[in-house]
Design goal:
The structure holds 2 protein chains of 2 kinds.
Chain A: E1 4-9, E2 12-17, H1 18-35, H2 41-63, H3 70-80, H4 123-131, H5 135-147, H6 151-162, H7 169-176, H8 182-187, H9 191-206, H10 210-263, H11 274-277, H12 281-311, H13 318-344, E3 348-357, E4 363-369, H14 376-381, E5 411-417, E6 424-433, H15 436-444, E7 450-453, E8 456-460, E9 475-482, E10 487-491, E11 511-512, E12 515-521, E13 524-527
Parallel strand pairs in A: 4-8, 4-10, 5-9
Antiparallel strand pairs in A: 1-2, 3-6, 6-9, 7-8, 10-12, 11-12, 12-13
Chain B: H1 2-24, E1 28-29, H2 30-39, H3 46-58, E2 62-67, E3 75-80, H4 82-107
Antiparallel strand pairs in B: 1-3, 2-3
Classes of the chains: A alpha+beta, B alpha+beta.
Chain lengths: 531, 112
């Protein structure tokens, strides 16, 4: 089924199918175009139209059909001849004085802003059409004008405000100086009418008050700024996303390597480092794996997300994401389970004490033994040969024992006055455990060194656990009781182990040669330097 | 290409003459003129004819009058004006001269 129209051609009403109409219209426009150059166009065209109408009527009559079809139009226009075939000789005729001399275009070129080809507001693009100067040249000139003297910017803004934007197609064609030609008409016959309308509207536009024009300028400026930021902003986001992606990937890699190390893929000795000594061996690996999953899945999600932002692609499907979520939840629950289990190991506490008799002296020197005690296994690990070190002591030389894998401080010392005027040292060994027996066992396995050499009391800096013994917050509390009147020289290193007394509070005069001088009084230890 | 150009030039001149000749026989309208030209094997499309007719009319060589027709729009029937007739006579003369010139050129042999 086809749509038909009624046309009035040559004073006859003729039914014609839509596609036939299109063809006919195009032909007639061409004809009009062609004869528009000469003075008699109206008459010639109407003659032609009359003839065409006649031919149509003949066809309808002879073929006994109600409507003109596409083929009919083709036949008729073939008979009439295409515009090319019209052998016209207006050039040599003297009567052709009515022909427009030269190639004056139908429409004079008008100055508009070309926003289709604009970089910012189309000022340079529009100017280039009007002046027939290459747009890049104008752009370079305007940039120079902006930088040299700055007046160029003002001029540009003024032009932006005053020159209207080419909105409609006809305006754009007028801007470019394209004759409203056959191509344009063929495309849209109806637009001829709307162009007329636009012209009227444009005349009205010209009379708009300048304020309103500035208003639209501001909107446009905002739009340009917004789109610039959007574009730039998007790029900035992309860059940030890429950076995040790289960092996250490195974190992922690091986590992976750590896990491998802990699993013992190579002999990295991590089992002996503090946090891992808490955990029993039988579930060390499982726990580590669960913890790894818990940590790594969010990193993975972060990587995927940043990939999506950076490259605007969706790397992971929904199923994958849900799967990842499930894995993470599983890892999380397992980790929590193990953490609970581990905490359980610390449930009970046990303690036992032993006393050491001290030889009395009038003045004691209290110092910290910083030498590191190496177990056999440690010696092997560090490849220490005892022979090399005879007579020498390896000192643990760090000022703080606070490096990441050091167990928490486990030695504390209190210095108090003795009740019975004799010096004594009480060592209390404490530990946690899963039950009292276990705790006590752990406590018994604590090794701590203290020795008295004449008047020198040497305290070890840390406790030692047997190799592979699990950390259960083992600690030793030392209580040194001195009789009133006993003098002390305390190594300043001792301060961190000293409870209930802060050596820093002693004034300068009591501090000589890295030693704090004090004396036990009835009220407790006090700083005093006495000869 | 070159032959076509010359041919077109030749035809252009002759067409007008032929048309005037045809119309001189009696009043006739465009479509029939075409038919006559076709039978005389002078091929031309109708579209060429109309501007030509209009021009001749504007130059005063032709006249027309509208004739109503039952089957379609009214038709223009062309006739020669007196001026048209006199021009035709001139063209007749020109044609004789040309014909003679061509014959001469054809039949005479070049002098050695």
């Amino acid at each position: 089924m086809k749509k038909t129209l009624n046309i009035n051609i040559g004073n006859s009403i003729i039914h014609i199918e839509e596609d036939a109409y299109e063809l006919l219209t195009g032909y007639l426009i061409e004809v009009k175009q062609h004869f528009g150059k000469s003075a008699d166009d109206f008459e010639i065209v109407s003659d032609i139209e009359n003839r065409i109408a006649e031919m149509f009527l003949e066809i309808l009559q002879s073929q006994q059909k109600p409507v003109i079809e596409l083929e009919d139009v083709q036949v008729v226009t073939g008979l009439m001849g295409s515009v090319k075939d019209f052998e016209n000789e207006p050039e040599e005729e003297p009567l052709a004085d009515t022909v427009n001399p030269g190639a004056a275009p139908f429409i004079e070129k008008k100055l508009y802003r070309d926003t289709d080809e604009a970089m910012v507001a189309g000022v340079c693009a529009g100017l280039s059409h009007y002046l027939k100067i290459d747009v890049s040249v104008l752009r370079v000139l305007s940039v120079l004008a902006v930088f040299i003297g700055g007046s160029g910017l003002l001029a540009y803004l003024i032009l932006w405000i005053t020159i209207p934007k080419a909105r409609s197609r006809s305006e754009k064609m007028a801007m470019k100086g394209e004759a409203i030609n056959l191509q344009g008409f063929k495309r849209n016959f109806e637009e001829e009418l709307s162009m007329f309308k636009n012209n009227m509207q444009q005349a009205g536009d010209r009379f708009e008050p300048i304020v309103k024009r500035s208003g639209s300028f501001i909107t446009e400026f905002g739009e340009v700024l917004g789109s610039f930021l959007q574009g730039a902003g998007k790029t900035i986001f992309r860059i940030i996303a890429i950076i995040i992606m790289i960092c996250a990937s490195m974190m992922f890699l690091a986590a992976f390597i750590s896990m491998a190390a802990i699993f013992g893929l190579w002999d990295s000795g991590t089992q002996d480092l503090f946090p891992f000594t808490i955990i029993n061996e039988n579930y060390l690996n499982t726990f580590v794996f669960a913890a790894f999953v818990t940590i790594v899945v969010p990193i993975l999600a972060l990587i995927l997300f940043s990939v999506r932002v950076a490259f605007n692609s969706k790397p992971a499907g929904k199923t994958f994401s849900y799967g990842l979520l499930l894995i993470w939840l599983a890892g999380l629950s397992v980790s929590i389970f193990f953490i609970a289990k581990i905490t359980y190991e610390f449930k009970e506490e046990a303690e036992f004490t032993q006393s050491v008799q001290l030889k009395p002296f009038t003045e004691y020197k209290i110092e910290v033994d910083r030498s590191r005690f190496f177990s056999k296994e440690d010696s092997l690990r560090y490849q220490l040969n005892a022979a090399d070190y005879t007579g020498k002591v390896i000192v643990h030389d760090s000022d703080h024992d606070d490096h990441p894998f050091a167990p928490p401080r486990s030695v504390s010392l209190r210095i108090e006055k003795s009740e019975d005027n004799t010096p004594s040292l009480t060592e209390s060994y404490r530990s946690q455990g899963v039950n009292f027996e276990g705790a006590l066992n752990h406590a018994k396995n604590i090794q701590y060194d203290f020795k008295q050499t004449d008047s020198v009391l040497t305290f070890g800096s840390a406790i030692h656990l047997k190799k592979n013994a699990k950390w259960r917050d083992q600690r030793v509390e030392l209580l040194l009781k001195l009789p009133v009147g006993a003098k002390v020289k305390i190594d300043r290193e001792l301060n961190r182990y000293l409870q209930g007394f802060n050596l820093w509070n002693c004034s300068e005069e009591n501090y000589k040669e890295d030693m704090y001088y004090g004396i036990m009084t009835a009220e407790g230890l006090q700083c005093r330097f006495e000869e | 290409m070159i032959a076509e150009n010359t041919q077109t030039q030749m035809r252009k001149g002759i067409l007008e003459y032929c048309v005037l000749l045809i119309i001189s026989r009696g009043e006739i309208y465009a479509s029939d003129i075409i038919a006559e030209l076709k039978s005389a094997k002078l091929l031309v499309v109708e579209g060429t004819l109309y501007p030509l007719l209009t021009r001749l009319k504007n130059n005063g060589l032709l006249n027309y009058n509208w004739v109503e027709s039952t089957s379609g729009p009214p038709r223009k029937y062309y006739t020669l004006t007196p001026e048209g007739t006199s021009i035709l006579v001139q063209l007749d003369g020109t044609w004789q001269e040309l014909s003679f010139a061509i014959n001469q050129s054809k039949n005479q042999t070049n002098q050695p």
